[in-house]
């Protein structure tokens, strides 16, 4: 729940901040996901004559948007999950309405040890360069391992010095709420 209505662009920033925190929680707990979910609620001041619903106070508000995106494989990669969440937000949000509530979720979560081995079939081609594909997969595995080490280092620093010890540039943009949320306990000032 936001303290005031936010524009779609500022709402996107907050969704990405929330997703970044979600990914770090996954890494911290040794979990992976292959699907993400997003729910966006709009402010009662939004003019939407087409599709409305009643909120808990009886006011008519624009109907919220929700959706999910498949990641293609189990992962806890910030790059992949943030990219998918940004695309999902852009796909489902109503551009002309102010955003008031957002919720991000990791669906179909598994422990890293429970991830099924890749036994899916692959379409072979007489023209494909198999060695190049193998090199590309090896580079992707190496990049994922490097990102994982970076995420673990971030978690170690945040656990030792506090959640605001290391922040990303997006946390300092106008409208960002990550720093304030890091100082709250259960949504209230600590």
Short description:
This protein is of the alpha+beta class and 190 residues long. The protein has helices at 8-29, 78-92, 130-161, 178-182; strands at residues 31-42, 52-54, 60-62, 65-75, 99-107, 110-111, 184-185, 188-189.
Q: SSE layout and pairings?
A:
Blueprint: H1 8-29, E1 31-42, E2 52-54, E3 60-62, E4 65-75, H2 78-92, E5 99-107, E6 110-111, H3 130-161, H4 178-182, E7 184-185, E8 188-189
Structural class: alpha+beta
Average predicted confidence as pLDDT: 87
By CATH reckoning, the class of the domain at 8-113 and 169-189 would read Alpha Beta
The CATH homologous superfamily of the domain at 8-113 and 169-189 is called DNA polymerase, Y-family, little finger domain
The total beta strand count reads: 8
Please report which band the strand proportion falls in: under 5%, 5-15%, 15-25%, 25-35%, 35-45% or over 45%: 15-25%
Helix content: 25-40%
* Shape field: globular
Radius of gyration: 19 Å
Indicate the multimeric state.
Answer: single chain
Low-confidence stretches: none
């Amino acid at each position: 729940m936001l303290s005031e209505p936010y524009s779609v662009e500022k709402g996107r920033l907050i969704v990405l901040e929330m997703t970044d925190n979600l990914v770090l929680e996954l890494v911290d707990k040794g979990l992976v996901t292959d699907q993400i979910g997003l729910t966006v609620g709009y402010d009662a001041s939004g003019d939407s004559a087409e599709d409305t619903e009643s909120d808990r106070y009886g006011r008519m508000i624009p109907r919220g948007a929700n959706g999910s995106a498949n990641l293609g494989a189990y992962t806890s990669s910030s790059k992949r999950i943030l990219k998918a969440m940004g695309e999902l937000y852009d796909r489902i949000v109503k551009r002309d309405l102010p955003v008031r509530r957002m919720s991000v979720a990791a669906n179909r979560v598994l422990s890293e040890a429970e991830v099924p081995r890749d036994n899916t079939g692959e379409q072979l081609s007489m023209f494909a360069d198999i060695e190049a594909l193998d090199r590309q997969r090896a580079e992707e595995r190496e990049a994922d391992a490097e990102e994982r080490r970076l995420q673990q280092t971030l978690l170690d620093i945040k656990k030792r010095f506090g959640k605001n010890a290391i922040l990303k540039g997006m946390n300092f943009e106008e409208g960002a709420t990550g720093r304030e949320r890091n100082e709250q306990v259960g949504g209230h000032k600590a």
